[in-house]
Amino acid sequence: MTTDAMAGEARPAPSDSPLPRGMVTVLLLPGLATFAGYFVFAWLGLADVVMLYMLAIAVAATQFGQGATLLASVLSVLSLDFCFIEPRYTFVLTDIKHITTFAFMIAVGWVICDLSERIRAQARQAEERERHTRALYRLGAVLAEGGSVPAIRDRVEAYLRTELERPLAILLRDPKGRLEFREGEALLGPGEQELAESALDLGLPTGRGTGLRAGAPWLMLPLYGMERIVGVLAVRTSQAPAQGDPATLLSPLAAQISLALERASLAEERTEARIRVEHEQLRNTLLSSISHDLRTPLGAIIGATSSLLNPGPESGPEDRAVFLGAIRLESERLLRIVSNLLEITKLESGPMALKREWSAIEEVVGSALGHLEERLGARPLEVDLPEIWVPLDPVLFEQAVLNLLDNALKFSPPGGAIGIRGWAEGAQFRFQVTDEGPGFRPGEEERVFEKLYRGEGQASTPGAGLGLAICKGIAEAHGGTIQAGNRPTGGAEIIMTLPLEGPFLESMPPAFNAEP
Amino acid sequence: MSADHAPILIIEDEPNLRQYLSTTLRSHGYRVEEAASWEEGREKASRMDPLLVLLDLGLPDGDGLSLARTLKGEKPVPIIVVSARAREEDKILALDMGVDDYVTKPFGSGELLARIRVALRHAAEAVTPEAPVLELGDLRIDFTCREVSLKGESVHLTRIEFDLLAFLARHAGQVMTTSQILRGAWGDASKAQSSYVRVYMRSLRKKLEPDPTRPRLLITELGVGYRLKP
What count of other Cβ atoms lies within 10 Å of the Cβ of residue B118? Predict the structure, then answer.
């Protein structure tokens, strides 16, 4: 009933139907009164019989409409006249005064009926209002779930279709500002689409009961946001409204919907803008960092080669050796930076494709140490690795080990020991690299894994600050984690944790069987 | 290496790199011939009967690997591939196809010369009958008795371990892919899995390397294969 009231349609209440229901009751009431009247008449007198019939009329008046009440009244009056008023068992009236009584009886019945109707109507209205409010409240709850604009739209449409029990659609605007008619919007033919677009263009409701195509079976309500029209609510209405402007009844709903959609849309725009700004910032930082980090070693190389090509008069073979050594060192550094840039680009462009295999951890570390032999030199190296098989991508993990060792070498004092340890802890494998350098500053432990992060005072240290970020990417690609911290004895430690169990492709390698 | 040996053919389109390779090789006593394209390389290779071919995969007029296949099809000339492509898949593809070794740009001359020496030695050995005993630094392998000793001390190896070591030793200095090892050491690549190779290599390292994390002899090329360093 709420639905129709809200859509401005008035379906007749059951009590207004022309054919009284409970015809039996209408006939029965005067009959009962007559029956009881005999007893009352014998003990109490005519006045009380009249009251008895009055009671019957009153009961009829509260239950039925005017027509039935009138019928009951007339029947009561006739019964009263016939059965109890002298001369009894005739319709003849000797005392004309009785006619007034009859008239008053019918009038009272009428008044009671009218009052009852009004009370019922008010109760109905109150009920409708309550349903209306509850619907708005529920709509509010549906909207409060938030989400993207299409998600909100879909949820609200589903809710309203159930609540209003009629076809409807919420039409949003496409990037060009026109209305978007989705596939499966077969309920909206070209005529309706045009009507909806008119509502958008005019900024006014169109369709049923409005100034434009008032006879159309649909009502198009523009959804007004604070800043602009967010879309159009299309509701199918089937009959002319009984009273009032249908648009105003739907408008509190529409208002809530518009605001929610607008808010979601603005939130999306804000997020996109922020992402764009962040990307821009990262790009700029990366560019300036790359520029600096590539130019520095190149500068050294170009400087050294030009000195070699134009040796001063006092230069000798030792100077040449120095320059050549510098060229070699700086070139290798440049190669490392370029490799890191390549790795970080791969990381950025999407999830890494791991080629996981059950790997011998000392083999991977051994390979990494092999590549760093020269830089490690005579430095004390403490290596302690278990003889277990770890499911990892050996090439990527070696890259991570190289970066960790590179980091340790950068910050280690000359001759400072570097530690490489691995151990199994439950279903995890822990891999730790330690150095005897200054360690991390408090609060730095998380930030070191950010791309392009450099500790304070490290701005001139070569390397684009990508090494640890790559380690993090590799750890996470394996489903693991990485942490940085300071050792209680001084120096830094970085621990990579990788899972030993998981849905990996290969089963465990066969147990090694002794053979001849 | 005297100058009247056959030349090393350098097939490289980049002029600076070609010049660097030529100069370096010549300064170490090799005769050198150059080609700057697929076609020129093909032509010179068949005409000249080179000692060894240095082939860049990134040639402008053709796929370097197809040239390697063609050259290998004609005569057993050792080929060392030079490439900027550092991906393991590319290396495995080339090695499995029959290329003798693979060098990734940028590389140092020391590394290149070592690989050339190894490839030439193996090419020479292919002609002479296999020696019953092989000595590589501290390692001594007796193929007939199937005995191995390190610094004079005997090392016990299982049958499978011995076959693996022997295979790597016969190709000492050259990287062998996992599938080459499976075929060459154990004869059947289909039944065994690549993880077996890793398992046995781990065992060999434990037995033959004083420090398995600083291998001197059994070098791992992660993602590609293994190399016995002479």
Answer: 22
Using the predicted structure, report yes or no on whether residue B219 has a pLDDT greater than 60: yes
Q: Are A178 and A197 in contact (CB under 8 A)?
A: yes
Find the residue in B nearest to A421 (Cα): B213
Cis before residue A87, ω within 30 degrees of 0? yes
Residue in A360, A365, A515 closest to B198 by CB: A360
Report DSSP letters for A163-190, one per residue: HHTS-EEEEEBPTTSSBP--TT-TTS-H
* Whole-angstrom distance, CA of residue A77 vs CA of residue A82: 8
Which of B187, B194, B192, B204 minimizes the C-alpha distance to B225? B194
CB-based contacts of B18-22 (< 8 A; 24+ apart in sequence): B21/B54, B21/B112
- List CB contacts of A392: < 8 A, sequence separation 6 or more: A354, A356, A357, A359, A364, A478, A498
Residue A407, C-beta contacts closer than 8 angstroms, at least 6 positions apart: A433, A435, A467, A468, A494
CB-based contact B199 A364, cutoff 8 Å: no
Q: Could you identify the residue written with the tokens 């605007």?
A: A173
Considering chain A, what is the average pLDDT of its residues? Answer: 82
Which residues of chain B from 193 to 222 reach within 8 Å of chain A, CB to CB?
193-196, 198-199, 201-203, 205, 211-215, 219-222
User: What residues contact A178, with CB distance under 8 A and at least 6 apart?
Assistant: A197, A200
ipTM: 0.82
Quick one: average pLDDT of A320-330? 90
- Nearest-angstrom CA–CA distance, B122 and B128: 10
Decide if pLDDT at A210 tops 90: no
pLDDT digits (tens, 9 = 90+) for A376-425: 888 999 999 998 889 999 999 999 999 999 999 988 888 899 999 999 99
Chain A, 420-479: which have a CB under 8 Å from a chain B CB? 420
A331 and B CB contact within 8 Å: yes
CA of B6 to nearest chain A CA: how many angstroms apart?
Answer: 32
pLDDT tens-digit readout, A66-110: 888 888 888 888 888 888 887 778 777 777 788 888 889 889 999
Question: Is the pLDDT reported for residue B153 higher than 70?
Answer: yes
Contact state of A366 with B201 under an 8 Å Cβ cutoff = no
**Token code pair at residue A263:** 């808010």
Residue A51 pLDDT > 80, yes or no? yes
Which of A355, A367, A513 to substitute to test the interface with B, most B CBs within 10 Å? A367
Question: Is the Cβ of B158 closer than 8 Å to some Cβ of chain A?
Answer: yes
Please report which residue ranges of A372-433 form alpha helices under DSSP H. Answer: 373-376, 394-411
* Residue in B closest to A328 by C-alpha: B108
What are the pLDDT digits (tens) for B86-105? 788 888 888 988 899 999 88
A137 burial type by CB count under 10 A (0-12 exposed, 13-18 middle, 19+ buried): exposed
Distance CA A134, CA A389 (A): 63
Contact in structure between B83 and B101 (CB atoms under 8 Å): no
**Distance from C-alpha of A396 to C-alpha of B62, rounded to nearest angstrom:** 31
3-class SS string, B209-221: CCCCCCCCCEEEE
A515 touches chain B (CB under 8 A): yes
What interhelical angle do A46-63 and A23-43 show, nearest 10?
160
B157 within 8 A of B168, measured Cβ to Cβ: no
Q: Tokens in use for B12? A: 């490289």
Q: Is the pLDDT of residue A124 over 90?
A: no
Burial of A68 (0-12, 13-18, 19+ CB in 10 A): buried
DSSP letters, A192-234, are: HHHHHHHHHHHTS-EETTSSSSTT-SEEEEEEE-SSSEEEEEE
